[in-house]
Design a protein that fits this description.
The complex is a heterotetramer, with two copies of chain A (348 residues), one copy of chain B (500 residues) and one copy of chain C (314 residues). Chain A contains 13 helices and two strands. Chain A has helices at 22-33, 35-50, 58-83, 91-108, 117-144, 149-167, 197-215, 217-227, 229-234, 239-265, 276-286, 298-318, 322-347; strands at residues 173-174, 267-268. The two termini of chain C are 38 Å apart. The complex binds adenosine-5'-triphosphate (2 copies) and magnesium ion (2 copies). Chain B: This is Sugar ABC transporter ATP-binding protein. Chain B: Keywords: ATP-binding, Cell membrane, Membrane, Nucleotide-binding, Repeat, Sugar transport, Translocase, Transport. Chain B: GO terms for molecular function: ATP binding.
């Protein structure tokens, strides 16, 4: 390659006088960036006021965080998909498939009282692999057949659920005792962990996602494809390959979420997580992700997931009937996005 | 001077911290063709958006047709007699010509739409398109025809003022000429026209009076007769511009790109052969739809190739068949898209991301980005290219059209290829910046880069290219040195495919 | 219409195998697997072909209506149905009877006079049994949570009602601290609701759940919060996990129905109806309270560990 | 600067040469337009071959058609929404709400053995009105707060379901006998009707939708907004008003669908039609509707609904296990859209 282009600095036009009021606007910007966080805080404070003291006990705090794990982990994958301008309706089914795969593999080890560590790890990897295959298929179909992901994943949602029922023989699959079941214990086994291992894994995965999105070329490609696919192609990004990578990579997160789901249920359940995809999408969107692509963040999405968990927990604590909970969650979903719109207005 | 139709006084408009308009005055007489000119980002489009009702001014007064005029939305503006033809076409692609033209003003009976075919046909006839079938879906029409459909929209209403914002930037010379005829017919009907363009020759050719904007302020107005292009430029830029087409010495070297009988899968191009040398600036001329864009898209791997042999730098493994954009980029090709908004830029990403997107390898290691280095590189380009922005973290979408184009070019320069395909590189760019880009292209050539430049603006091709070829219906003429081409030869080949 | 008469006519000839449709509420609880096994056993004994088909989405009444309609179209000889709703399924059942396809209802009741027989557990009785057990365990006092199953499910609503009735009877001094929360249709929803309830009422001493998924969800919540064994827990229905819970003392009582018998008797009865033999209008298949004390008795073992594979894997 | 260019007089670009095979391409076009219809036909024929003769009995034909009614009617509303570039995830919840409203109103008439005609009509209108209010709210929120309909309807989905449970006191609401219950009878009461009244109503509504879309100004606005919203706005279409009208109008269809659902269930069921929105959307998309707006037809959507009904019925007839059905339906959804893509390819 020839040496770098040397362009003499332009002389024709005078540089634009720089704007002076950068300070106040940057304060605003920071405030806006933390909008989901403030949302979480205000919901929390609201419940602290309304609820019995049991709500803000440390133990309940642990409960809420543990209940965020599954949606939270899956939301990391969904965040990447949504930033890339896609959507995945099949996550719930994939999670169900994952739990069934784990249970089936665990049962292969024979009817011992406790499953060996080897087979336990194999089971977890099996679930993750099963989800990865689903993700890969979705990526392949969307990018090769050029079908919108809404439809592809709507189809895969049915297919994965059907396969889960098939593998599980339409039943919940019970399993021997094993270490995976300890991932979501509110009082973790080595007590110094304080939180369940699942919580620590979530924190790790959130950090991983944030780093991938911000500091890697792959992350940059995700944003580029979501913002303008044609530009991405023009700039030499192999869009269909990247898209397959995105769906496969995020399906790995779904796989981990399914391990957590199994840990919660201790059985393989082909009907598990029905409709959970909507919770997951809602979490990402509440956290600032835009369904038209190019916007979203790991931090925002996990906060979105936390908001929903706090709401559910708080409503249970208050003894609010289930239907009121549903109404409140519906309002919150719309409200959060309305605030996000408003934020964009201010920014512009 | 005839009666004043439109009078704007002290229009001020800010977008957050950006002051787009700082007290503009504009007066347009009945039935005149009024040019509105200015550099990129001077505020022309913003002013017109205010006139059409798409934006509201912060302060200032507008008098239209003797009455104060405060449109709340574009529809109100349209019904009050101001029609706006935007830089980007505004049509509903799934609807037919008739449906598009009568959109919003349908006649109906009990909610059922009545056919207004005759009205539409009449409008099309005035525009010289009597054969166009009103029931054709618009997404099958060429850009020029689509533009006429937009103008027809103005004719079915009692329109007194038509605003054309850079209407010719995506038209070829022939279509431009046809458009001028249309404008003349509008004038004959007593309709006033505000005409925005960066092509000052055009402006001088068809306009009666002009107003110049600079940095959101009116800096001059007057009658076109007796004003030279040089004077217009001086008012726009604030000083005189001595050399529009600079020439930096460069020599042609060995062949770097050989194309033989290239044929695209989508019928265009049908047959293209040429050889590009190191340090050569090759111009490609032709009518819109001739297939010039498709040709370079095929070469870059964006469109599918049916047939043909392509050799890049003598390498056997780089046939057009196997090319994908990523491979093309790796082997030293780069492409500047003609469609900035849809393809060239990711408009809701920051400037720096756009500049470095095709060369992330240079600022990354094992897939990890060096953000500081990336930002620094982008900032350098912003300075060198004189991009008017607050900060390279700003979204590209917030820049004016010309500045967006500069960002696209900065991406190419940052990637630093050996062969540049530039599709309409000066589209929507003001004269001052144009001269900059010409100088840049010359500089690149002098450094041993090769450039293929597609343009529908003949003077610039004649001004800066070393060699030139013309395309007619997918067939590329022979490449000849620029000095052996005449305007006449070029137009002859472009319209009829006959070589002299 | 005429077509249909011909389709039923050629099966009335009697030489062919009877085709009996058995329609469960869902297919993903082991409860239904036992019913299936019982039905297959009865089918073999009576020489009838068993067609097993549930609604595609569990707890979807509309889907179950369609399944019944499709079986009517298909012209089966008899239908054994576990209705998801005691009223919605009345219309299709009436339509079946109108087309000379008799129907036997199993598991939960249907508000219709057209069906031939009702083969089920006395759900209210089951709920009462649980209440009695819990009251005994708590010594007649304490704080108790009842976690409901899901909105609009008739059989579980009966068990809930029976429990509340039983509590008045056997433990009038017991305080019911929460009875309005629903577990939801899946185990995972039950689990979260249970966790939150247990956090809200750390002082709870006794818990009751009315079906398999809610019991299992609650069991898991008790386990993860370290309350298992400490809180007296009585549930409904059995599967491998729940039986293990009884064995290790985490569940103190499990009302177990006899689904195998339900399927068996259901098919036996419908065949009797079709062949115009004698049959009972109401068959009670019984409910038994399984506890750590009686779990090893052979009759209980047969109830909770029926040899399903013998019937289903062929 | 170079001298002014002399431009020869205007020449309108002659048409490109490769457009001569108009005849064969118009045949192709007609064939392509009927693609969903052929899809239906081939699915039907497939089952005729595989299934017992009971499948193609007239009675089963009636069964299939009657089973299409609810999804079919709701799909008409969804067609309009999808053409306008929107989506509605709350349809299932709205239907549930409708059934509960009907049941509640019927019970107001006192505990008679049979509800009077007056109160029956009132009940049906009440359900339709309830849905219309939901639709209006959706339209209002999307257009005023500028939130994507995916999110708004995701919220309303929860809210409507919550309200339905609230009105129904978290239970199915039983009702006195009434004429609404006869709308979906396979053997209709006046026997000369041959099909259930619901089927006739569906046919009427399909015709109505087709006419509205093709011949009215409102229909044209629907297409214009879906095709290019900005243009619609510039041309003076009151986009937010029209959008509210679209959502409200199509909610009327949802209301009628809820009456049919009630007729089927004969009770008000707050948990009814969960997930049905996905079936409805799938029907529209299988029938050629495009989720990016501007494309779709009433005829196509009803055929899409029929395809799904035939599939379900045929699988039942074959005695195919549920999980296999799920997989097949998933594959069909993706396949139908893949064919549609292909069609666009040929057309282009
Ligand atoms: N929506 C907006 N938000 C922020 N700034 C804006 C917006 N629209 C325009 N501007 C700014 O206002 C100024 C004037 O822009 P405008 O588009 O009117 O320029 P123009 O004269 O039409 O330029 P060009 O010739 O490049 O089209 C520019 O500095 C631009 O960045
Ligand atoms: N067969 C056709 N029928 C109608 N319009 C056509 C046809 N082929 C091309 N066009 C129109 O012409 C436009 C420009 O085509 P193309 O990009 O190939 O031209 P070009 O020679 O590159 O011209 P330019 O670079 O000036 O746009 C296309 O976008 C399309 O709208
Ligand atoms: Mg402009
Ligand atoms: Mg072009």
């Amino acid at each position: 390659m020839t040496p770098k282009v040397e362009i003499p600095p332009a002389t024709v036009m005078p540089p634009l006088p720089n704007k002076s009021k950068g300070e106040s606007s940057s304060v605003k910007k920071v405030l806006l960036q933390f909008a989901p966080f403030f949302g979480l805080l205000s919901v929390f404070i609201l419940f602290v006021i309304l609820c019995p003291p049991a709500f803000y006990s440390f133990y309940n705090f642990k409960t809420i965080i543990t209940q965020t794990v599954i949606v939270g982990i899956a939301a990391m994958g969904m965040t990447m998909i949504i930033i890339s301008g896609g959507i995945d309706l099949s996550v719930g089914s994939q999670i169900a498939l994952g739990t069934v795969v784990i249970a089936t593999i665990l049962n292969m080890g024979g009817p011992g009282v406790e499953a060996s560590t080897g087979i336990t790890i194999l089971a977890a990897l099996g679930a993750i692999a099963a989800c990865a295959v689903c993700g890969w298929l979705i990526g392949l179909t969307t990018s090769r057949l050029n079908i919108v992901p809404f439809i592809v994943t709507l189809g895969v949602m049915q297919i994965a659920r059907g396969v889960a029922k098939w593998i599980g023989k339409e039943q919940t699959v019970s399993t021997p005792v094993n270490n995976l079941q300890k991932l979501m214990l509110l009082d973790p086994e080595p007590e110094w962990l304080i939180f369940a291992p699942g919580v620590w894994i979530t924190i790790l995965l959130v950090a991983l996602t944030a780093v991938v999105l911000k500091y890697t070329v792959f992350g940059r490609y995700i944003f580029a494809i979501g913002s303008n696919e044609k530009t991405a192609r023009l700039c030499g990004i192999n869009v269909s390959l990247t898209r397959m990578a995105i769906y496969t990579f995020s399906a790995l997160f779904t796989g981990v979420a399914s391990v957590m789901q199994y840990s919660n249920l201790t059985v393989g359940d082909p009907t598990a997580a029905a409709g959970m995809e909507l919770d997951i999408i809602a979490a990402v969107v509440i956290g600032g992700g835009s369904l038209s692509g190019g916007e979203g963040s790991a931090m925002g999405s996990i906060i979105g997931a936390l908001i929903m968990a706090v709401l559910r927990n708080g409503c249970n604590m208050l003894g609010v009937p289930n239907f009121v909970q549903e109404v409140i969650i519906g309002v919150i979903i719309i409200g959060a996005v309305a605030i996000d719109r408003l934020k964009h207005h201010i920014k512009a | 001077m005839p009666d004043t139709l439109l009078k704007l006084t002290n229009i001020i408009k800010t977008f957050g911290p950006v002051k787009a308009l700082g007290g503009v005055q504009l007066e347009v007489a009945q039935g005149e063709i009024h040019a509105l000119i200015g550099e990129n980002g001077a505020g022309k489009s913003t002013l017109m958006k205010i006139l059409s009702g798409a934006e509201k001014p912060d302060s200032g007064e507008i008098m239209f047709d003797g009455k104060p005029y405060h449109p709340q939305n574009p529809a109100e503006g349209r019904l009050s007699g101001i029609a706006m033809i935007y830089q980007e076409l505004n049509l509903a692609p799934h609807l037919t010509i008739e449906e598009n033209i009568t959109l919003g003003i349908e006649k109906s009976k009990l909610g059922f739409a009545k056919s207004q075919k005759t009205l539409v046909q009449e409008a099309l006839r005035i525009l010289g398109q009597p054969d166009l079938d009103p029931s054709t879906p618009v997404n099958t029409l060429s850009i020029a025809k689509q533009q006429l459909v937009e103008i027809a929209r103005a004719l079915v209403l009692d329109t007194k003022l038509v605003i054309l914002d850079e209407p010719t930037s995506s038209l070829t010379a022939a279509d431009t000429q046809a458009l001028f005829e249309v404008i003349a017919r509008l004038k004959a009907k007593g309709i006033a026209v505000i005409y925005i363009s960066h092509f000052l020759e055009e402006v001088q050719q068809i306009c009666d009076r002009f107003t110049v904007l600079r940095d959101g302020q009116t800096v001059g107005t007057g009658s076109m007769a007796g004003t030279s292009i040089q004077q217009l430029i001086e008012q726009m830029v604030g000083r005189s511009l001595e050399d529009m087409y600079p020439h930096i010495p460069h020599t042609l070297g060995e062949p770097v790109l050989e194309v033989q009988a290239l044929q695209g899968k989508s019928a265009l191009p049908r047959s293209a052969s040429f050889t590009l040398h190191r340090g050569e600036i090759l111009g490609i001329s032709g009518l819109v739809g001739a297939g010039r864009t498709e040709m370079i898209r095929c070469l870059f791997g964006l469109d599918k190739v049916a047939n043909g042999k392509v050799t890049i730098m003598g390498r056997k493994d780089l046939q057009a068949h196997y090319l994908r954009p990523e491979k093309a980029l790796d082997s030293g090709l780069d492409l500047l898209s003609e469609n900035r908004k849809e393809e060239g830029l990711a408009v809701n990403l920051p400037i720096f991301t756009n500049i470095t997107l095709s060369a992330l390898k240079r600022v990354s290691r094992f897939g990890w980005l060096n953000l500081a280095q990336e930002k620094q590189q982008a900032d350098e380009w912003c300075t060198k290219m004189n991009v008017k922005c607050r900060d390279s973290r700003q979204e590209v979408g917030a820049l004016s059209g010309g500045n967006q184009q500069k960002v696209s070019i900065a991406r190419l320069l940052n990637h630093n290829s050996d062969i540049f395909f530039m599709d309409e590189p000066t589209r929507g760019i003001d004269v001052g910046s144009k001269a900059e880009i010409y100088r840049l292209i010359q500089t690149l050539a002098s450094q041993g880069k090769s450039i293929v430049m597609i343009s529908s603006y003949l003077p610039e091709l004649l001004g800066i290219c070393d060699t030139l070829a013309v395309m007619h219906r997918g067939e590329l003429s022979a490449v000849k040195p620029i000095s052996t081409w005449t305007d006449h030869d070029i137009m002859l080949y472009a319209t009829s495919g006959v070589a002299v | 219409s005429t077509e249909n008469k011909t389709t039923t006519a050629n099966t009335e000839g009697g030489t062919e195998k009877l085709r009996i449709a058995v329609i469960p509420k869902g297919s993903t609880h082991s409860f239904w697997k036992s019913i299936h096994a019982g039905a297959v056993k009865a089918g073999q004994e009576t020489g009838a072909e068993i067609i097993w088909q549930g609604p595609q989405k569990e707890d979807d009444r509309q889907m179950q209506i369609q399944v019944v309609q499709n079986f009517i179209s298909q012209g089966v000889d008899g239908i054994v149905l576990a209705p998801l709703d005691d009223r919605s399924l009345a219309t299709p059942v009436n339509a079946a009877v109108k087309r000379d396809i008799p129907v036997v209802i199993i598991d939960s009741d249907l508000q219709s006079k057209e069906y031939s027989s009702f083969v089920a557990t006395d759900n209210k009785m089951g709920g009462k049994l649980c209440a009695q057990r819990l009251a005994e365990l708590l010594g007649g006092k304490g704080k108790v949570i009842m976690l409901r199953y899901s909105e609009g499910s008739a059989s579980t609503a009966e068990r809930e009602a029976g429990f509340l009735e039983g509590m008045k009877e056997y433990g009038p001094n017991i305080e019911l601290i929460s009875t309005n929360q629903y577990a939801g249709a899946t185990m995972e929803k039950a689990f979260q609701a249970s966790q939150n309830l247990l956090n809200r009422f750390p002082q709870v001493e006794g818990v009751y759940c009315p079906n398999e998924s809610s019991t299992q969800g609650m069991l898991r919540a008790l386990q993860t919060s370290g309350k298992a064994k400490k809180v007296k827990f009585v549930g409904f229905d059995a599967n491998a996990t729940l039986i293990a819970g009884v064995q290790n003392g985490e569940i103190h009582g499990l009302a177990v129905q006899n689904p195998f018998m339900m399927g068996y008797e259901g098919v036996k009865t419908i065949v009797a109806v079709v062949k115009k033999e004698n049959y009972e209008k109401r068959v009670d298949t019984g409910v038994k309270l399984v506890t750590q004390e009686n779990i090893n008795q052979p009759e209980v073992q047969e109830l909770i560990n029926p040899d399903l594979d013998k019937w289903l894997n062929q």
